[in-house]
Amino acid sequence: MKYCINCGAQIKDEAKFCPNCGQDQAKEVDNEQQTESFTEKEAVKQSLAIGKSYFGYFMEKLRRPNADLTGNLTYFGYISLGIYLLLQALLTTMVISRGLSAIDQFFGLIGAYDYGYDPFSFNESLGGSLGITFFLRILFFYVLILVITIGITYGVERLSLKSPVSFNQTVNQLANFLSGINLFLLLFTFGLFIRLFSPIFCLIIMLLAVLFFQSSIIFVVQRNADNKQAKIAPFYIVLLVFVLNSIVNWFLTIATIG
Predict the structure, then answer these.
(1) DSSP collapsed to 3 states, 107-163
(2) d(CA 85, CA 71)
(3) Is 218 in contact with 244 (CB distance < 8 Å)?
(4) How many separate helices (H) and strands (E) can be counted in the chain?
(5) What is the spatial distance between Cα 103 and Cα 97, in angstroms, rounded to a whole number?
(6) Four-residue CA torsion sign, 222, 63, 53, 91
(7) 174: exposed, middle or buried (Cβ count in 10 Å: 0-12, 13-18, 19+)
(8) Which of 84, 91, 251, 86 is nearest to 174 (CA)?
(9) What percent of the residues of the chain are helix, what percent strand, and what percent coil, each to the nearest 5?
(10) Which residues does the UniProt record annotate as the domain Zinc-ribbon (predicted)?
């Protein structure tokens, strides 16, 4: 004898329906089979979700840059920052290379030297005179600036807020607005590669991307200062972050150029 899965009445072992409530006893077997099927496919579903998750994060940040998106993996911000660094370094290398190539062509046209040899040609890739080594140097320069910027922002918030945010949260907050910036950088990098845009125009876009990113840092610091009970006036926290970042980045740029 067994018991009904619905009402608990005692029924025969071979009974398919409960004589008391009419419950189909086979549903218990179906539920077990569904559970087993779900368990077998869980790894595949999770793998697909991970593969699509950053794209979903990217699209959501395009629609709502300031959304917290609780539940997303903490490394999404690092991915956005990495893409931003790569695109900025690539676009910078291409702008400088195309600019030098234009200067070289100009001197060749006016007969300043034999134009049979072009020392600044880009050759449609990073394989020209300003090749992968130059690209890596530019990338290292941007990484250094970004690390210092994040460090200053996190350090100032750590000292000035009564309940400071974590380092991962700081990184993800600073990356909130990068989906739109990265999309524009990607479009103009491709446009410069196919010679759709001029190097000067792409240089302006690159500088605007830096300006928007710096503005997003100020916005994040201001919001955290308002929400986390700042020890001093939020205005002074924002001003301190801006001044420190500007001074350090200025000296770093001068040292690199010099």
Answers:
(1) HHHCCCCCCCCCCCCCCCCCCCCCCHHHHHHHHHHHHHHHHHHHHHHHHHHHHHECC
(2) 25
(3) no
(4) 7, 2
(5) 10
(6) negative
(7) buried
(8) 84
(9) 70, 5, 30
(10) 3-22
Q: Is the pTM of this model over 0.70?
A: no
Of 99, 100, 129, 125, nearest in space to 194 by CA: 125
Q: pLDDT for 93-138, tens place per residue?
A: 888 888 777 666 666 666 655 544 444 444 444 334 567 888 888 8
CB contact at 8 A, 216 and 177? yes
For the stretch 55-88, pLDDT in tens is: 877 887 888 877 665 444 568 889 999 999 999 9
By residue count, the chain amounts to 258
Q: How far is CA 108 from CA 9, 99, 112, 123, 200, in A?
A: 98, 14, 6, 17, 21
207 burial class (0-12, 13-18, 19+ CB within 10 angstroms)?
exposed
Query: Residue 83's closest CA among 158, 167, 169, 183?
Result: 183
